[in-house]
Structures are given as structure tokens and as C-alpha cells.
From TrEMBL:
Record family assignment: Belongs to the bacterial solute-binding protein 8 family.
Annotated GO biological process: iron coordination entity transport
Subcellular location: Cell envelope
Originating species: Actinophytocola xinjiangensis
A UniProt-annotated Pfam family: Peripla_BP_2
Protein's UniProt name: ABC transporter substrate-binding protein
Keywords of this entry: Signal, Transport
Entries under InterPro entries matching the protein: ABC_transptr_periplasmic_BD, Bact_iron-sidero_bind
Residue ranges constituting the Fe/B12 periplasmic-binding domain according to the UniProt record: 56-323
UniProt keyword Transport present: yes
Length: 323
């Protein structure tokens, strides 16, 4: 996740066209029982054969961690546990997981000591790490995202992990719960008279005194969830192909419509660039949505790249923002 990594380094931070009838498990094979083997096809198109439902799992990326906990499987190893606790609140860890180190470069020694039967990773691993892990342990690779179908990709990842862990029934429950949350949120926004409202969601970081702004353009998971609620994304630029993210500076905000609602996320653990660094900026102060008090900060620790649990939090936050 190159933009998130840049954000992390800069500020010492961490970083669909949705058909609601899709099969959340992605594959319809029944879960294995007893010693029956399970075959899962990961995002590489590679078939991963497991001796049975995986129990001792290590996960190197936070979306995978959130998916697993939501499915009722507590990982035994998690990369950057402190960061997860600061940025993800939808599915909390208990005190049992062991920290694997950074998300891009987990500790091979720690993985070996944990005696895991599965590692779940994304393409954020440093070069050579995947091959080293696969020498001893099955690895399921999950795509970080897909800006062409961000919500669909989320469910695809949940389904892969559900099959690997024998929790497909729970995955179906998650889908039902999320669909109900979307319907509830859409109705609440319509009742508030906010359907069709144009919003611009972003985060930001400061490096060498300069504020970089990251728009969540169409195709990003957050923007697509907001679209499901009947809200319009104001950003017109194209985001990257994986996460739907773009880059602008404060001058780029002049392109937003005057009546836009400007929503963003920050974290008290690392500061708020919009408040800390732009409060006295002449361009920022004179933007119509700033002068009209249409700037709203979402609650901390809502993971913008998470699963259905985090996205349900975004639904609630959006409803609160228009109330």
C-alpha cells in the first residue's frame, strides 16, 4: 500500500459496484470436516491445500486480521499490534497474538516459533519475504483492494479466509448484517434529506512543513460504501488501481464544489494536519466549505481499508455526519 506507507513514514503513521447477492465465500465447496483437505484459490490464482480448517494463523496485514477476528478466528501472530490498536477498532484483538514486526517485513524467527499452519499476507511484503515464508508454511495471498470493485473484492477476501478456516456460515452472517447496515444507513440519510449530497473524503499527512492530501476517489472502499448510502463523491480525479487513492495539495481543494461536505479522518495519536497545519493557511481558510463550516472529522480508529466491520462503522459515521 504505497500511499499508506508514505503516510506512515512522513508522519510516523500507520496506512463497488457492489451486488449484494454475491456468494461471500467465493467458492461453494462445503467446509472440510475432520481430516478432509481444503483447497483454496488465493488472489494469485494459486491453489493452497490445507490439511483441514486452519487454526493457528498469522496475518501480516490489518484487513486480513480484521476479517479473521470477524469470522471468529483470533490470529496467533499479527504484524504491528500497536498500530492495529490505534487504527482499527471494529474488531479488537485479545491479549494472545504475538507481534510479528512490521507489516511489510514480518519476523521470520517469530513466525517459526509460533508454529503456524497458515500465513495470510498481501503484496505489501518486501521482496523475497513471501518465498521465504512459503518454504515452511502455506501462504494465502489476498489482494489489498480493487478499485474496479472494491466492495466485491472485500467480500472475496472474506470468503477465501472463511473457506480456509471453516467459518463459511459466519461469513454469510457477516454479509447479511452488512447488507442490513447499508439499508439502515441509506434510509437514515434519505430521512435526513441528505440523499444525493456531494462529499469529499480524505486523509492527510505533513512532511517537511508541507501538507499532502489523499483523496479517496471513486473506486476506493470508503467512497464506494458512501455511494451505497446515496451520497456522491466530489473527487473527479482517478485514483490508483488498487485502492482508488489520489494525491493533491491544499491548492487542489479549490477544485471542489462550493457546497461540498468535506469529510476526513485523522488520529489523535499522530495529529490532525487539517487543524494543526492548515488552520492559518490562507487558501484553506477561504475555501467555501471551510467558511460554511462544512468540514467534519470522522471518529478515530475507523480503518479505511478494512472489512465489513470497519465499513459498518463508516456507515454509522456518515449518518451521524449528516444528522
Amino acid at each position: 500500500m504505497r500511499k499508506l506507507i508514505a503516510l506512515c513514514l512522513a508522519a510516523v503513521l500507520a496506512t463497488a459496484a457492489c451486488g449484494t447477492t454475491e456468494d461471500p465465500a467465493g467458492e461453494r465447496d462445503t467446509p472440510a470436516a475432520g481430516g478432509e483437505k481444503i483447497t483454496v484459490t488465493d488472489s494469485r490464482g494459486k491453489e493452497i491445500v490445507l490439511d483441514g480448517p486452519a487454526k493457528r494463523i498469522a496475518a501480516t496485514e490489518w484487513n486480513s486480521v480484521e476479517h479473521l477476528v470477524a469470522l471468529g478466528v483470533m490470529p496467533v501472530g499479527v504484524s504491528d499490534i500497536k498500530g492495529y490498536g490505534q487504527w482499527v477498532s471494529a474488531q479488537k484483538l485479545d491479549d494472545t497474538p504475538t507481534d510479528l514486526g512490521t507489516r511489510g517485513e514480518p519476523s521470520m524467527d517469530t513466525l517459526a516459533q509460533l508454529d503456524v499452519d497458515l500465513v495470510v499476507a498481501t503484496d505489501s511484503l518486501v521482496e523475497g519475504a513471501l518465498e521465504q515464508i512459503e518454504e515452511d508454511t502455506p501462504v494465502i495471498m489476498l489482494a489489498g483492494g480493487d478499485a474496479n470493485d472494491s466492495i466485491g473484492e472485500m467480500w472475496k477476501n472474506v470468503g477465501i479466509l472463511a473457506k480456509a478456516t471453516g467459518t463459511e456460515d459466519r461469513a454469510k452472517e457477516l454479509r447479511t448484517e452488512f447488507d442490513a447496515k447499508l439499508a439502515e444507513g441509506k434510509a437514515a440519510i434519505a430521512q435526513a434529506g441528505a440523499a444525493g449530497t456531494t462529499v469529499a473524503f480524505s486523509d492527510a499527512w505533513t512532511e517537511s512543513g508541507s501538507v499532502s492530501i489523499r483523496p479517496f476517489a471513486k473506486g476506493s472502499l470508503v467512497a464506494d460504501v458512501l455511494a451505497e448510502l446515496g451520497l456522491e463523491t466530489a473527487w473527479t480525479m482517478k485514483g490508483d488501481e488498487v485502492y482508488g487513492l489520489a494525491d493533491i495539495d491544499v491548492e487542489g481543494l479549490r477544485e471542489l464544489p462550493a457546497d461540498v461536505r468535506f469529510w476526513y479522518i485523522a488520529n489523535d495519536a499522530f495529529g490532525d494536519p487539517y487543524v494543526d497545519d492548515l488552520a492559518d493557511n490562507a487558501i484553506w481558510k477561504n475555501l467555501p466549505f471551510v467558511k460554511n463550516d462544512q468540514v467534519h472529522r470522522f471518529p478515530d480508529s475507523l480503518w479505511m481499508f478494512g472489512g465489513p466491520s470497519s465499513m459498518a462503522q463508516f456507515v454509522d459515521a456518515a449518518v451521524d455526519a449528516v444528522s
